[in-house]
Amino acid sequence: MTATLTIAQAGPALTIQDLGRPGWRAQGLTKGGAADPVAVYEGAALLGQSPDLAMIEMIGTGGTFTADTDLRIALTGANMTAKIDGEAIVWNASHSLPAGAKLTLGGATSGTYGYLHIGGGIASDPLLGARATHLSAGLGAALQSGDTLHVGVDKGGDTGFKLPRDGRFDGGVVRVVTSMQTDRFAPEERDRFANTPFTRDPRANRMGVRMDHDGAGFSAEGGLTILSEVIVPGDIQITGDGAPFVLMGESQTTGGYPRIGTVIPRDLPRVAQAPAGTKITFEFITLDQAIALETQHRRDIKALAGQMTALIRDPSTIRDLLSYQLISGAVSGHETFEKDS
Amino acid sequence: MTDFPKIQTVGLSGILVSFADTMSEPANRAALSFRAAIDGSDWVEVSETSTSLVSTFLQVDLVAVPVDAILTRLNDLLDSRDWYTADLPDNRTLWHIPTVYGTDLAPQLEEAANLAGLDPDAAIKELSSARVRVLTIGFAPGQPYLGELPKNWDISRQQGLTKSVPAGALIVAIRQLVLFTNASPTGWRHVGQTGFKTFRPSSETPFALSPGDELCFPAVPRAELEKIMAHDSTGMGGAETEVLA
Fold first, then answer.
1. Which residues on chain B are in Cβ contact (under 8 Å) with A290?
2. DSSP for residue B75
3. Which of A11, A81, A299, A332 is deepest in the core (most CB within 10 A)?
4. What is the mean pLDDT of residues B212-232?
5. d(Cα B14, Cα A22) in Å, to the nearest integer?
6. What pLDDT does B217 receive?
7. B5: Cβ–Cβ under 8 A, 6 or more apart, which residues?
8. Is A236 exposed, middle or buried (0-12, 13-18, 19+ CB in 10 A)?
9. A177, A290 in Cβ contact below 8 A?
C-alpha cells in the first residue's frame, strides 16, 4: 500500500512539477519543470531528499489537502497562508502532516509560485522521462479537486526545520547576458532597455512573463525579417508591440521575435516570482561575470542544508505538549544542522 | 560571404552555429549535416543538439565548460568540409501521408491556389507531387516545417488569423508547409487535411518525425481518408514509410 495525498479542494493552477524534461528540444518540446528551481532545492534540503522528486506547484493560491498516512511535508517558494487543522504553520519549513489532518494553503502573500513537497515525492507515472506537467505541450493536466495522488516511499527524517528567505520575491535587478541577437539592437536601444524601469505585467504564465514600461516600445533593426531561432529559458524577446517578454521553461522551442539578451539562470526565479506590478530592471553583465555568479549559486544550492535552523515553537500553541520530551535532547534553535544532501 | 558559418553563445545554455541569415536549401542542409556530425562525435560537453531552419544548436553548460576549449574543436569540424554541399544524414525516413485537398475539410485550397497562380486542380497536382523535407521542428511538439515548395508558392501569410485549424491540418505560406500537431490559430492557409499525428505522448515513439525526414502528401478522396480514420489507432493516418539510405 502506497501512501496517498488527496486534494479536497484545488486552487485554479496546481500542477505536478519536477526539474523538467531535457533532451527533446529537437523534437519541439522544451524542458519545462518548476518555474522556481531554487524552491525545488529548498524543499529537497528541508526533507533531506533528492531534488529530482516531484512536488506540487501552486500559482497564486494553494488548496486543501489530506493524507491517508502520516507524511512529512515542506512548503517553499511564494509565501502562502498555511494551516494544519486550523493551526498556522510556518512557510519555507518542514512539518509533519498527520493522517487525516487538513492542510490548508491559501493565497500568496509574497511571490507567485508556491511549492508543496512531500517526503518520498509525488509518485505519478513519468511521461517521456519526467513527471513535470507541460500544459502547452499537452503533457499532463492541472490538478483538480478530488484528485488522489500516490506518494513515493519516504526514507524518513526529522521535520521542524526552516530555511531563511531570500529576496527573489520582490523584483529588483535582474542580470542579463548578451545573446545571439543582441547586436540586432542599436547600442542606444540596449542602453535605453537597461535604464528603463519595468513592472511585471499581469500577463504571465509558465511560458513567459511580459514586462510593462512607460515610453516607446523597443525594436530591432529588421526585427520582422529575422528567422525563427532556438529559444533558451531566460531569453528576452521583443514582441511586435515593443514590449519585452521573458521566456520561461515552458516556452516554444523556437521563436521569430528578436532576443535582446538572456536572463542568467539564478535570476530567472526572480522574474517568475515577482507578483504583477513589481518593479524590475535589467542589467547587462559579461559572460565571465555570469559564470562566476552561477558557479557561486550552484555552491550555495548544494549547501542549503547547512542553512537550516530548527523552528522555535511557542509552547502555548502545542496542543499535545505533555507528549513532548522536554527535559533532555531538546533543540535550542541555535545549533547549525549539518545534513546529508 | 565570410560571415558564415557564425559561432555564438546562447545565454549560458549553449552554442549556436548559424549557416546563413535567410532560409535556403543549402544552409538547411548544412545545419542538418552539421548536427549529425556533432551527434556522431559524442562530445561529452554536448548534452543535446537541435536545428532551426539554418542553424545548429549545441546544449552546453557554459558555467562548467570553458567555451574556448570547445570553440577550437568546433572550428576544426567546420573547416573539415563544405557543409553547404554535404550529404544529408543517412537513415532518414520518407513518409507518404494521405491527404484530402480542399473540400470543407481544407477550405483555403482555392484561395492559396489563386495566390500561387494556379487553378485548384493544378495546385493539388503540384502539392501532392512535391517531396518536401523537415526543415525544422518547433512551435508545438513534433510539428514540422517543410520545404521548399516551387517558387510560385512563395505566398505571404494572410492578414488576419484563422481562428482554429484542426490537428493534422496541412497549411501553406512562404514556400513551406506545416503539418499541425494540435488545433491552433494560424496565419497560414489551410489547403489539406490528414489524419497523421505528429505527437503521440504515450507511444514508444512519441515524436513521429525527425529533422531531415522527407514527406509526400498524395491526394486521396475524402471517403478514403474517412475509411482510414475509422480504423486508425496508431496515429499514422494511413501513412507509409521507407528508409532513405
1. 12
2. H
3. A11
4. 96
5. 14
6. 98
7. B17, B18, B19, B30, B34, B78, B83
8. buried
9. yes
**Which domains can be identified in chain B, with CATH numbers?**
6-85 (3.30.1360.40), 92-244 (2.40.100.10)
Place of cell 485548384: B120
pLDDT on residue B91: 87
Q: What is the pLDDT of residue A341?
A: 35
Domain extents in chain A: 4-165+315-323, 172-299
Give a three-class secondary structure readout of chain A. CCCEEEEEEECCCEEEECCCCCCCHHHCCCCCCCCCHHHHHHHHHHHCCCCCCEEEEEECEEEEEEECCCEEEEEEEEEEEEEECCEECCCCEEEEECCCCCEEEEEEEEEEEEEEEECCCECCCCECCECCCEHHHCECCCCCCCCEEEECCCCCCCCCEECCCCCCCCCEEEEEECCCCHHHCCHHHHHHHHCCCEEEEEEECCCEEEEECCCCCCCCCCHHHCCCEECCCCEEEECCCCCEEEECCCCCCEECCCEEEEECHHHHHHHHHCCCCCEEEEEECCHHHHHHHHHHHHHHHHCHHHHCEECCCCHHHCCCHHHCCCCCCCCCCCCCCCCCC
B118 contact partners, CB below 8 Å, separation of at least 6: B126, B152
- CATH number among 3.50.50.60, 1.10.1670.10, 1.10.150.130, 2.40.100.10, domain A172-299: 2.40.100.10
Per the CB < 8 Å rule, is A24 touching B54?
Answer: no
What's the mean pLDDT in A159-173? 96
- List beta partners, residue B190: B171
pLDDT higher than 90, residue A130? yes
DSSP B158: P
B83: which residues sit within 8 A by CB, 6+ positions away?
A: B5, B19, B29, B30, B33, B34
Q: B37 and chain A: CB distance < 8 Å anywhere?
A: no
Residue in chain A nearest B202 by alpha carbon: A127
Q: What is the percent of chain A where pLDDT is above 90?
A: 85
Give the ipTM of the model, two decimals please.
Answer: 0.89
Which of A180, A254, A291 lies closest to B136 in CB terms?
A254
CA distance B166 to chain A (A): 15
pLDDT tens digits for range B43-96: 999 999 999 999 999 999 999 999 998 999 999 999 999 999 998 888 899 999
* pLDDT above 70 (res A71): yes
DSSP assignment letter at B193: E
B52: helix, strand or coil: coil
pLDDT of residue A320: 57
Running DSSP on this structure, what letter comes out for residue B152?
G
- Please, is A220 exposed, middle or buried when counting C-beta atoms within 10 Å of its C-beta (0-12, 13-18, 19+)? buried
pLDDT of residue B210: 92
Say yes or no for a CB contact (<8 Å) between B140 and A252.
yes
- Per-residue pLDDT tens over the stretch A185-204: 999 999 999 999 999 999 99
Quote the DSSP letter at residue B108.
Answer: T
Contact assignment for B9 to A227 by CB distance below 8 Å: no
Q: Which of A19, A21, A29 to mutate to test the interface with B (most CBs of B within 10 A)?
A: A29
Higher model confidence: residue A255 or residue B93? Answer: B93
